Amino acid sequence: MNSVHDCGGDDGFGRIIPDGYDGTEPVFKSEWERRMCALFMATIVGGLFTDEDFRQSRERLEPSRYLTRSYYEQWWFAVARLMVEKGVISPAEYRAEIARMDAGTGTGAEARS
């Protein structure tokens, strides 16, 4: 059974490669996205979790979050959930940041404004 992340080959999702992207470096629309990418790499290299853990965490995102959030916001949700599961941050901290994001004042708000 397909879930929300299984959209390969489906019509209606637009281009996958951003206009102007030449494939030579990551695309960051704002500085927080660059920091999110660095945090992800540090958690993988540091052994906090594996790339498979990360993939599974992204796949567990609620469809409404998966389809309405930017690429790096999806990364944030996945990494933050794993940090809760590993005891790095508390569930309350996670919920508070989600509330800030939903209100447009948290991580990535500048990318959506």
UniProtKB/TrEMBL annotation:
Residues 1-101 form the Nitrile hydratase beta subunit-like N-terminal domain. It comes from the Bacteria. Gene3D superfamilies: Nitrile hydratase, beta subunit. Pfam families: NHase_beta_N (PF21006). InterPro entries: CN_hydtase_beta-like_N (IPR049054), CN_hydtase_beta_C (IPR042262), Elect_transpt_acc-like_dom_sf (IPR008990). This is Nitrile hydratase subunit beta.
